[in-house]
Design brief:
Blueprint: E1 6-11, E2 14-19, E3 23-27, E4 39-44, E5 51-57, E6 60-65, E7 71-75, E8 80-85, E9 91-93, E10 102-104, E11 111-116, E12 121-127, E13 134-139, E14 148-151, E15 157-158, E16 163-165, E17 174-176, E18 183-186, E19 194-200, E20 206-212, E21 220-225, E22 231-233, E23 242-244, H1 276-286, H2 295-301, H3 305-341
Parallel strand pairs: 9-10, 16-17, 22-23
Antiparallel strand pairs: 1-2, 2-3, 3-4, 4-5, 5-6, 7-8, 8-9, 11-12, 12-13, 13-14, 14-15, 18-19, 19-20, 20-21, 21-22
Length: 342
């Protein structure tokens, strides 16, 4: 039978309790062990060997292990380990094999973290419904709609509140903030896929650009919205509300114009109609119709469709008046010829 030596020593107000056999327990004077503060040492051999210690060291309570196995905390009547602190510093809650600095394994209902505050509770769940991992964050109870639901193979959503990227004060459902040229990129995986970017320039202009397997300036600008509201398609420098560099195809185009610009005044009795001889002399000299821009002017300034349509309408109305006048002359001449034959 092994002998246990128990001694109580009073030394400078300290108490020393020692049970001396291969599995030792020491409750000693702070000056009798390395370090400071009272310690309870469990283990075999000396402090330089393998042992675990729980103690008070100056201003903190310490759990110390001189082995590679770490600590296990067991509760309940099933001897099931609830918490593990491995020798490498990894902590496992609900698992005895932590793979990260902190590994959490939920209970039967997949709850892994509950938080309690003054105004409400917060609960985090991780499950594998449908065979795919889910991360779910609830407010107060699991019966309502989650605040956050991240699904690796399905719908993910945020319920309530604004989301900020680059800002802590989002004022819209999604606010992206960047001091210099923020970019929102839409990218398709794989090769030869067309990617898109929405790019905000520091000057206030917004660009929609795209391209296959391209990034940033290597993408093509398809649409530009300047800070003054001008929109450019195929051009980044629109000088009007809408500028298009390319063809436009539409089933209907309606141009609103000032009613006073419609040339119905041509049919007024006091309108001075240019004679055909005057028109001929003008064409001979300038090589284009009166009040119609020349080819050079159109090449430099383009065509204002609304204005040009009104100018052409005026020429049609003037031509109609000339035809009416010519028809009246021909009818008069036919009457004179019939009179001569009679």
């Amino acid at each position: 039978m092994k002998t246990i030596k128990l001694s109580i020593l009073l030394s400078f107000g300290s108490l020393c309790l020692m049970a001396q056999y291969p599995n030792n327990i020491y409750l000693t004077d702070p000056n009798t062990n390395s370090g400071s503060g009272t310690k309870l040492i469990l283990g075999s051999g000396s402090q330089s060997g393998n042992y675990h210690s729980i103690g008070i060291n100056n201003y903190w309570t310490e759990f110390r292990s001189h082995t590679n196995e770490g600590w296990k905390f067991i509760t309940g009547n099933t001897s099931e380990t609830k918490l593990v602190v491995e020798g490498n510093g990894k902590v496992g809650i609900g698992t005895t094999s932590p793979t990260a600095s902190l590994s959490l394994k939920g209970l039967a209902n997949n709850r892994v973290l509950d938080g309690y505050g003054k105004s409400g509770n917060l609960m985090m769940m991780v499950n594998t419904t449908g065979g795919w991992p889910h991360f779910i964050l609830y407010d107060n109870a699991t019966s309502g709609t989650p605040l956050v639901h991240l699904n690796t193979n399905g719908n993910s959503f945020l319920n309530g509140g604004n989301v900020g990227i680059g800002t802590t004060n989002p004022d819209q459902l999604l606010t992206i903030s960047e001091d210099d040229n923020p970019v929102l990129r839409l990218e398709r995986s794989g090769t030869n896929k067309h990617n898109w970017e929405i790019y905000s320039q520091s000057g206030g202009s917004l660009f929609f650009r795209g391209g296959a397997n391209a990034v940033g300036t290597s993408l093509t600008n398809f649409l530009a919205i300047q800070s003054n509201g001008n929109v450019g398609i195929g051009t980044t420098t629109p000088e009007s509300k809408l500028a298009v560099d390319g063809k436009i195809r539409a089933t209907e185009v309606k141009i609103l114009t000032d009613v006073n610009s419609v040339p119905d005044y041509v049919f007024e009795a006091d309108y001075e109609l240019r004679t055909l001889q005057e028109t001929k002399e003008y064409i001979t000299k300038y090589k284009h119709l009166p009040e119609i821009p020349s080819a050079t002017e159109i090449g430099e300034n383009g065509i204002d469709l609304g204005d040009m349509n009104m100018r052409l309408l005026k020429k049609i109305e003037e031509l109609t008046l000339h035809l009416i006048e010519q028809n009246e002359r021909m009818e008069k001449m036919e009457k004179e010829l019939h009179a001569l034959k009679d």
